């Protein structure tokens, strides 16, 4: 998952522009100047396709307090892994002993298709899939690039202690990225870069090199509350506070049981995740974006109809979602989510036929959602 940690953004002096710093070639020595090494790491990150890179320390005391409060209130729903690792999430040196610094990187995935996204959301017979899940799963791609980056650093300075992370361990990635100057944590809890908006993935390298740190990003949300106002289920209960139990991303991906009745209609046609809070963010309107070919839509998922996707057999689901983040939700959640969306769709022959084809399915979870959806259409006809 990409969203379920919240904290407040802080204000710091602006980060100096990298263009104002002269770059010196790094000597082939383990005793190289840390400042020169830091500049070389940023150059290498760009060479490996990352649009942003920064370095932070490991102090996350204030963020640890926010995390503890969020967990104590049970806002993580059934995601027990959020609470399982205790304070290791906010104490990098306890997760990876010897860690002194964290290199944070950002990789763009959002194309300029906001208008098309809204069109899909407005067409009740089409399926909406969160933009990050339309193409290849980012985890493996980013992890490979980060490891290559770490290997290149080792070639320059010799063996050093490090560990690469991409959603693979208890890491406060947004707080670390904010402290590294990659962006501020918006009221919707996503990281926002002034020039790149919020359509990017995060990854980290924990390392034991005493590199100079970057200036943390400053907050620029101001009085804007569009992300809070647009949320279909009102999951953003306060600035920087997300109740995962109400979030469509959680309900359609992480939640393994029935979708609560109160949220089924607001889900609309969103069958895997939700982007509304990012689609309305003013900082995304003029953001510079890089089109990563691996993240382009597969299987026509940006245009597919609900009925067509509902007809997939489990074998087709596994084949067509190979290498995709969608695979992790599993086939039964896939059908459950589409059944809800079909219940919200216009009452057409195609929609009714799709639902009726699954009304006797040998799966209690899916069958209950299909029954609910068919009942919705019957009620509309009365």
From TrEMBL:
Q: What sequence ranges are listed for the domain 4Fe-4S ferredoxin-type? A: 209-241
Q: Which UniProt keywords apply?
A: 4Fe-4S, Cobalamin, Cobalt, Cytoplasm, Iron, Iron-sulfur, Metal-binding, Oxidoreductase, Queuosine biosynthesis, tRNA processing
Could you tell me what reaction this enzyme catalyses?
epoxyqueuosine(34) in tRNA + AH2 = queuosine(34) in tRNA + A + H2O
Active site residues per record:
167
Record bears the keyword Iron-sulfur: yes
Pathway membership, UniProt:
tRNA modification; tRNA-queuosine biosynthesis
Q: Where does cob(II)alamin bind?
A: 89, 167, 191, 202, 249, 274-275
**A Gene Ontology molecular-function term?**
cobalamin binding
- Where found, per UniProt? Cytoplasm
What cellular-component terms does GO give this entry? Answer: cytoplasm
Which GO BP terms, alphabetically? Answer: tRNA queuosine(34) biosynthetic process
User: Into which EC class is this enzyme placed?
Assistant: oxidoreductase
Q: How is the cofactor bound?
A: Binds 2 [4Fe-4S] clusters per monomer.
Cofactor(s) this protein cannot do without: [4Fe-4S] cluster; cob(II)alamin
Source superkingdom: Bacteria
Positions bound to [4Fe-4S] cluster 2: 231, 247, 274, 277
Family annotation (PROSITE patterns): 4FE4S_FER_1, 4FE4S_FER_2
Binding site residues for [4Fe-4S] cluster 1: 221, 224, 227, 281
Quaternary structure and partners: Monomer.
HAMAP family, A to Z: QueG
Cited function: Catalyzes the conversion of epoxyqueuosine (oQ) to queuosine (Q), which is a hypermodified base found in the wobble positions of tRNA(Asp), tRNA(Asn), tRNA(His) and tRNA(Tyr).
Q: What is this protein called?
A: Epoxyqueuosine reductase
């Amino acid at each position: 998952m990409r969203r379920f940690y919240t904290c407040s953004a802080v204000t710091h002096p602006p980060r100096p522009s990298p263009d104002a710093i002269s770059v010196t070639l790094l000597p082939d020595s383990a005793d190289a100047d840390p400042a020169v090494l830091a500049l070389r790491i940023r150059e290498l990150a760009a060479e490996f396709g990352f649009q942003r890179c920064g370095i932070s320390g490991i102090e996350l005391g204030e963020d640890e307090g926010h995390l503890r409060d969020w967990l104590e209130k049970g806002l993580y729903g059934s995601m027990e892994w959020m609470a399982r690792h205790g304070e290791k999430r906010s104490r990098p040196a306890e997760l990876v002993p010897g860690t002194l610094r964290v290199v944070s990187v950002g990789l763009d995935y959002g194309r300029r298709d906001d208008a098309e996204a809204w069109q899909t959301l407005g067409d009740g017979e089409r399926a909406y899939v969160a933009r990050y899940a339309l193409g290849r799963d980012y985890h493996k791609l980013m992890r490979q690039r980060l490891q290559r980056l770490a290997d290149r650093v080792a070639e320059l300075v010799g063996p050093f202690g490090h560990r690469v992370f991409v959603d693979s361990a208890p890491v406060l990635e947004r707080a670390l990225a904010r402290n590294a100057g990659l962006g501020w944590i918006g009221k919707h809890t996503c990281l926002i870069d002034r020039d790149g908006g919020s359509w990017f993935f995060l990854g980290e390298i924990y390392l034991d090199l005493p590199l100079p740190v970057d200036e943390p990003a400053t907050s620029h949300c101001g009085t804007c509350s569009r992300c809070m106002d647009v949320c279909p289920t009102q999951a953003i209960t306060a600035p920087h506070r997300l109740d995962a139990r109400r979030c469509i991303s959680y309900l359609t991906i992480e939640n393994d049981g029935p979708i609560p009745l109160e949220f089924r209609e607001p889900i609309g046609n969103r069958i895997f995740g939700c982007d509304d809070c990012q689609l309305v963010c003013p900082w995304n309107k003029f953001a510079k974006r890089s089109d990563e070919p691996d993240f382009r839509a597969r299987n026509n998922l940006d245009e597919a109809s609900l009925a067509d996707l509902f007809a997939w057999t489990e074998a087709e689901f596994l084949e067509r979602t190979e290498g995709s983040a969608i695979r992790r939700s599993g086939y039964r959640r896939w059908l459950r989510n589409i059944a809800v969306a079909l219940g919200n769709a216009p009452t057409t022959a195609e929609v009714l036929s799709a639902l009726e084809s699954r009304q006797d399915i040998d799966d209690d979870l899916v069958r209950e959602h299909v029954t609910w959806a068919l009942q919705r259409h019957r009620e509309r006809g009365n």
